[in-house]
Structures are given as structure tokens and as C-alpha cells.
Write a structure and sequence with these properties.
mainly alpha; two-stranded antiparallel ribbon; 9 strands
């Protein structure tokens, strides 16, 4: 019996040891697995948004140095929250553009002896976009309607719209706002009148019983104007305290240094770029009021902004450049006239079908639009420009449809070079664009003249509008 008891005790002991050993091994294995899992750290992409209280913001506003002081209220605080929390991307976009236009605004406002902080109004008007257009037809950084623009020397035709000229529009805005201030004796009411018109402000004053402050007539103003001035005041605060709200830019945008030159003739920016060795996209960016890259006879004395690095050379040889551009323009006009009388060619469904036109070495190509095509990429592939494509095909916009036939004229040598560049590939090499300092997706879309921001984002798998200088973007 003792032997049996001894055997059972021994068996239980070794069973315990074995069980303990297994559990220890399992524990070690689980521990190692846990350690390995901890080594794989998830990469969460988030942006820290600091908390802030009403009292903290009120104290900062009270300490602000400004010629247009204001006191915080719930309406202004709501817009501060909007610009720093809910729509930070808009605020970052504005930060990206402010260096392009704020120096001009500040200089103009100083010349007119006006509060410098009025510069923030352009953010509410246009988001600092010189080509911004409202649903009712207001244009430019300061959103002038055609009639009001003409009152302040901003004229427009099919090819030039002065409302999109930063200098002319800023000068006009300063003069208009100063006249509104003289009218009402209060800057907040002047801003309100800039938005809804002086007539509506007068009505609001009358209905309020003669009160002459913005908040005194607030309830009697149009709904849009009630939020207009609080947005302006919120932006005055936000752009002074970007660091407090963790609003930073990875790559600030800097303006292109330029000088103005008068050529006193009709001008095609593409021809000027070719003759002077200037990037046509830079000319477009510096001259946003010029539409279709053309300066017509009605604007002969218009000063053209050119990059400063080329300005001295162009100015020193202005007459020669002007003559060269004129001759290039005349040749283009003659070519268009010649091509307009050429025998029509039967449309075919391939891009490489060509035939000799009456212009000798010129090739007439019939191109069939395919899915994903835009005018910018079609022009690039065929060694021509969007402007010429639109002229040859009587297009009034950049819109094209799949299956549409486009006529393209190109020089024989250029045509052969294009074929040589594409030889050995199944199709044309992918077009790309290298992001330059100061570029935004919107500006790039305008440079490409036919590619939209949405198309750029889709082609490049972009989740936001953020891009960096040197980045390669597919454009087709």
C-alpha cells in the first residue's frame, strides 16, 4: 500500500512539473508574440488640433494691435472655431497664398491711409484667388461686378478682364472701401456695404431706429452680410495666432519677382514665351487678367509682367522682341488663313493619320478623342498648344467628348520629332509635370489649360491638395 501511495505521489509530482513546464513554454510563446506585435507600431496620420476656450481667445483679441479693434462674441467665436478646427484646409490654403498678395495689399492700403487689416477682407471675398468667380459673376481677388469694376477703371473684353489684375483690383477696392467709410463713418459698416451695397446698409440703419454700428443694425442686414463681417474678424484673429492652433506650412509659397514692359502691340503670350525664352505658364500666372493668352488691339498699351530674371534682357531689346513677336503672329495668321482654305479631309479613327496640307511642310492630323483625354495632354503630345487647338476646331471652351474629331496642324519636323520620341513604346510616353515653388493644384490645372484639379488628384492618388516642389505629377 505504501508503495502504491509512493507511486501515486511521484506520478502526480512529475505530472505537475510537466504541466508547469508546458504552461511556462506557452507563456513564453505568448509573451514573445506580444513583444513582436508591440514592435509593429501602427502609423496613424492625424493632426493635433489644440483645445482653446472662449476666455483664452477673448484675452488674445483684447491684446491685438489693430486699427480695427473688435470684441469677441459667440458669432465671431463660431467662425474662429470653423477656421481653426472644422475647415483647417481652407486656412492652410490661405496661408499658402498670403505671401503672394499681402505685400501688395499692405502697400496700397498704406498709400490710401487705410487700416492695414482690411487686407484680410480679400480672404473672405476670394480665398486669395485672382481668378475666383462668384455665382453672380463677380470676379477677382476683390470680387468686382462688371459695372462696379468699370467705375474704378477695370474694363473687360473677351481677352482681358482687368478685375483679375491684382494691382488694378486692389487699387479699386481701396478706393471703393474708402468712399464707403466716408459714407458711414464706421469701418465695419463700410465692410458690410462692400458686401451687400450701401443701399441695404442705409435701410438697415433706418429700420434699426438710426443705429450706426454693425452690431446695432445686425438684425436688419441681409443674412449673408451678417456672417460676412464676423468671418473677416475671425480671420484677423486666426492669421495672427496660427501657431497657437498648430497651423503650419511645410513649403511656404513665394511670389515670382517681375517687372512690367509695354510692347504697344497685339500680343500672344505663347509667342512671347517662345521668342524671349520665358515659361508661358509663368507669364499666365503673372498676368491673370489675360484670357486665352492673347492681348488684343483694344489693350495695345497694356503693361505685361515678365519674370525679373528676363526683364532686363527683354527691356534692352524690346523693339526687336516686339518685331519678332509681331512677325511670328503674322505667320500664324497666314497659316490659319491658308489652312482654312485647305481641302477638307475625311475623318478617320486613328491619331496617326496624316496628309499634306496646302501649307507645304505642315501636316494636318485628324485626332479622335479617347476616354481620359483633355486638351492640354492632346496639345502636348502633338507639339502644339491648347489655344491653337481651340482656334483650329472653333472650340469656345476646353470641353471635349469621347469620339470627337479634332483637326491638328503641325510642322513636319516637329511631327517627325514627336514620332521619334514615341518610337519603341506601345503608346505615347506618360506626360508628367514637376511641381515648382509656389504651385498649387489649381495653378497647375490652369497652366495645363485643360486638366482639372479632380483629374490631377485622381491620376496621382492624392487624398488632399497638398503638393511639394520637385514632386512629379502625372497629367495623362
Amino acid at each position: 500500500m505504501k508503495n502504491l501511495s509512493h507511486f501515486l505521489i511521484t506520478a502526480l509530482f512529475f505530472s505537475f512539473l510537466f504541466s508547469t513546464s508546458v504552461k511556462a513554454q506557452d507563456f513564453d510563446r505568448l509573451s514573445n508574440a506580444k513583444i513582436e506585435e508591440q514592435m509593429i507600431v501602427p502609423n496613424y496620420q492625424f493632426e493635433y488640433i489644440p483645445d482653446f476656450t472662449y476666455q483664452e481667445v477673448a484675452a488674445k483679441i483684447k491684446a491685438m494691435e489693430t486699427d480695427m479693434p473688435f470684441e469677441l462674441n459667440e458669432k465671431i467665436f463660431a467662425f474662429i472655431n470653423y477656421f481653426t478646427v472644422r475647415n483647417r484646409e481652407y486656412t492652410k490654403m490661405v496661408l499658402q497664398r498670403q505671401n503672394l498678395y499681402f505685400p501688395l495689399f499692405e502697400e496700397t492700403l498704406t498709400d490710401h491711409e487705410m487700416p492695414e487689416d482690411i487686407k484680410f477682407l480679400a480672404i473672405i471675398e476670394s480665398g486669395l484667388n485672382p481668378k475666383a468667380k462668384s455665382r453672380v459673376g463677380a470676379m477677382g481677388l476683390w470680387q468686382f461686378m462688371p459695372a462696379t469694376g468699370r467705375m474704378y477703371s477695370m474694363n473687360l473684353n473677351r481677352d482681358v478682364d482687368d478685375r483679375m489684375d491684382p494691382e488694378l483690383a486692389t487699387e479699386g477696392a481701396a478706393r471703393y472701401l474708402k468712399s464707403l467709410y466716408r459714407m458711414f463713418g464706421d469701418w465695419e459698416l463700410a465692410l458690410a456695404a462692400y458686401n451687400c451695397g450701401p443701399g441695404n446698409v442705409r435701410k438697415a440703419i433706418k429700420r434699426s431706429g438710426g443705429k450706426k454700428t454693425f452690431w446695432g443694425v445686425y438684425d436688419y442686414l441681409p443674412k449673408e452680410t451678417r456672417s460676412y463681417v464676423p468671418q473677416f474678424q475671425a480671420m484677423m484673429y486666426v492669421l495672427r495666432h496660427t501657431e497657437d492652433h498648430n497651423l503650419f506650412l511645410e513649403q511656404p509659397t513665394y511670389p515670382i519677382a517681375f517687372e512690367k514692359i509695354k510692347f504697344n502691340q497685339e500680343l500672344d503670350l505663347e509667342q512671347l514665351a517662345t521668342v524671349a525664352g520665358v515659361c508661358v505658364e509663368d507669364l499666365e500666372f503673372l498676368n491673370p487678367s489675360i484670357q486665352n493668352r492673347l492681348v488684343p488691339a483694344t489693350n495695345l498699351h497694356m503693361a505685361i509682367r515678365v519674370p525679373k530674371e528676363k526683364a532686363e534682357l527683354i527691356a534692352a531689346n524690346k523693339e526687336q522682341y516686339a518685331e519678332a513677336v509681331k512677325l511670328t503672329s503674322e505667320r500664324s495668321d497666314a497659316l490659319r488663313a491658308s489652312n482654312s482654305t485647305a481641302t477638307p479631309i475625311k475623318s478617320v479613327a486613328v491619331a496617326s493619320s496624316t496628309t499634306n496640307s496646302s501649307a507645304g511642310q505642315q501636316q494636318k492630323v485628324i485626332y479622335t478623342v479617347k476616354s481620359g483625354d483633355v486638351l492640354g495632354t492632346i496639345a502636348a503630345r502633338n507639339g502644339t498648344t491648347v489655344t491653337k487647338l481651340k482656334t483650329w476646331n472653333n472650340l469656345r471652351s476646353n470641353n471635349i467628348r469621347v469620339g470627337q474629331k479634332l483637326v491638328i496642324y503641325k510642322n513636319q519636323a516637329n511631327f517627325e520629332n514627336t514620332l521619334a520620341q514615341n518610337s519603341g513604346n506601345a503608346g505615347p510616353a506618360p506626360e508628367s509635370y514637376t511641381v515648382q515653388p509656389g504651385d498649387t493644384l489649381w495653378l497647375i490645372s490652369k497652366k495645363l489649360n485643360g486638366v482639372t484639379v479632380d483629374q490631377l488628384k485622381k491620376l496621382n492618388n492624392l487624398q488632399s491638395d497638398q503638393i511639394k516642389p520637385g514632386q512629379k505629377l502625372k497629367i495623362s
